[in-house]
Amino acid sequence: MDIAFTDRQAPRSGALIVASLADRQLTAGAEEIDRLTGGQVTRAMTASPRFTGKREEILAIPGPAGIAADRVILVGLGPADGLTALNCQKLGGVIAAHLNATAVVEAVLWADMPKDAPIDTAAAAAEIAYGAGLRAYRFDRYRTTQRAESKPTLETLTVELADPAAAQAAFERREPVAAAVAIARDLVSEPANVLYPARFAERCESLRALGLEVEVLDEAALERIGMGALLAVGHGSERESRVVVLTWRGAGDDSAPLALIGKGVTFDTGGISLKPPAGMEDMKWDMAGAGAVTGAMAALAGRKARVNAVGVLGLVENMPSGRAQRPGDVVTSLSGQTVEVINTDAEGRLVLCDLLTYVQDRFSPRAMVDFATLTGAVIIALGTHNAGLFASDDALAEQIAEAGRHTGETVWRLPMGEAYDRDIDSDIADMRNVAGNRNAGSVIGAQFLKRFVREVPWAHVDIAGVAWARKDGALGPKGATAFGVRLCDRLAEAFFESR
Ligand code: BES
Ligand code: MN
Ligand code: ZN
After folding, report:
1. Mean per-residue pLDDT for 276-293?
2. Residue 99 belongs to a domain
3. How confident is the model at residue 16 (pLDDT cuts 50, 70, 90)?
């Protein structure tokens, strides 16, 4: 789908989108169309008593008289004071979905925000276009036949407004983020026979085109470094493990970076502690943390963010085999601390713990945030509307929560504490990788990670419930959400960039 911004033109063929505020308060553009069509907009509203102009409501008026457009689409904006950037993005998403579902090829949107909206028309136009782009994402690589009815049709969306240059400038800030979201969704959607650790690393290499530095550590390098915990997870797999380091130097100085860390288990069978078969196919997206971090780094580079950042990905496949680690094995992590592996299915923490140590040793970051599909328990606790947030630092936790509210990638903080920490003491090693019971499984996972964090502000975001959507959403189709990309982009922009 192509997106363009121009000044207001006379209605032409294709769909024309105009808006109504709450309580059927037509915007100036909608009133003009009502006049040009001899009152068809008002008549359509009268005939559709359910339509009141609530946010994201849609009223289609096919075949309007008096104008060249094939159809007019009246979209509800809701109350003016609710028109935040995020709500404008969602409007764009809902519009794009409607246009594709009704076989529209070309659409024009007349953007005119009411005076009392918290966003001006140019910014709103850019957010609407951004949301439409996010929602129009598709992962179609493996479809060789598709019914015409289910193919997307929308080719161009032209947003018309008084100041198209201002909208274009605002959109240029957003477009690289939409592209980065697509990169992350592509990675997360790929099946595990295609996307194994070395392949994931290869895909990262192509991000050099954005100006990112990309370093790939292979198994020999990881052994030399001493990532014994991470390597133990990959030991049962025919596929070699990798760690990828993505570096973005945008601050213009040598200031300490914001470090992002991603769990990249390209497939999680559970290992010898094998998972049951039902739903195991979902474990192809057990690399969504690494996908999000990859996307976040692409976003920062793509929009030339004035920040120093590193993204570190732990890429492994967790398989059972004659070489796989066994329950009861003791592994030595990069930190020197030993771990008794009680359950080989609690593998994400074994991957992350070595990355946490590596990042602190090598980069002395300003803050570090890890993203991981770490526990099924976080889905029980929070469902699919919030990721679980754990943090060693209240200020960082609040910054992440704020970035989440701003982008709609919301998080909910869960507790940590000494008392939980005692549950992972081991009889023969420094710690065990799971507690002796199923209580507070997500907290236990976070508590395990915390043993590898020194002084630096650290947060852990458990995205097991939000990485994959079972239903279409306003800003994306069902499937990979790329949760974390937009959150990290906002976190960097609001709290880590130099101005
Ligand atoms: N990758 C899973 C967690 C997961 C479950 C992600 C469902 C997405 C959807 C993780 O490696 C895992 O298996 N965790 C175990 C931990 C347990 C053994 C302490 C779990 O949640 O059951
Ligand atoms: Mn697991
Ligand atoms: Zn896992």
Report:
1. 99
2. yes
3. very high
Both tokens of 379, joined, read 């889905």
Ligand 2 mean position, distance from CA 286 (Å): 8
Tell me: do 209 and 147 sit in the same domain. no
Provide the domain count of the chain. Answer: 2
Ligand 1 midpoint to CA 472 (Å): 24
Q: Considering every ligand atom, which ligand is closest to the CA of 464?
A: 1
The reply to whether 170 falls in a domain is no
pLDDT interval class at 153 (50, 70, 90): very high
Give the distance (Å) from ligand 3 centre to CA of residue 351.
10
Q: Counting Cβ atoms within 10 Å, is residue 224 exposed (0-12), middle (13-18) or buried (19+)?
A: exposed
Q: What does the pLDDT look like over 226-240, one tens digit per residue?
A: 999 999 999 999 999
Gap from CA of 327 to ligand 1 centroid (Å): 16
Taking the C-alpha atoms of residue 343 and residue 272, their distance in angstroms, rounded to an integer, is 8
d(CA 77, CA 88): 9
Based on the fold, state whether residues 467 and 319 are members of the same structural domain: yes
Q: Are residues 157 and 8 in the same domain?
A: yes
pLDDT-derived band of residue 176, with 50, 70 and 90 as boundaries?
A: very high
Last residue of a domain, one of 161, 194, 226: 161
- Helix (H) or strand (E) holding 76, with range, is strand 71-78
Q: Which of 275, 282, 286, 466 to mutate to test the pocket of ligand 1 (most atoms within 8 A of CB)?
A: 286
Provide the residues around ligand 3 (an ion) whose CB is within 5 A.
265, 268, 286, 348
pTM of the model: 0.98
For residue 426, give Cα distances in angstroms to 30, 34, 329, 333, 422.
Answer: 68, 73, 12, 15, 9
The whole domain housing 16 covers: 2-161
Q: Per residue in 33-45, pLDDT tens?
A: 999 999 999 999 9
What CATH number is given to the structural domain containing 465? 3.40.630.10
Annotated active-site positions, please? Answer: 275, 349
Best CA proximity match to 243, nearest among 285, 268, 214, 269: 214
Find the CATH number of the domain harbouring 79.
3.40.220.10
Cβ < 6 A, ligand 1 pocket: 268, 282, 286, 343, 345-348, 373, 375-377, 434, 441, 464
Residue 169 within a domain: no
Residues 272 and 407 in one domain: yes
Residue 19, SS3 per DSSP: strand
For the cut 90, the answer to whether the pLDDT of residue 151 exceeds it is no
The string of pLDDT tens digits covering residues 435-468 is 999 999 999 999 999 999 999 999 999 999 999 9
Q: What is the mean pLDDT of the chain?
A: 98
Residue 49 belongs to some domain of the structure: yes
321 and 414, same domain (yes or no)? yes
Which of ligand 1's atoms lies nearest the C-alpha of 467? 8
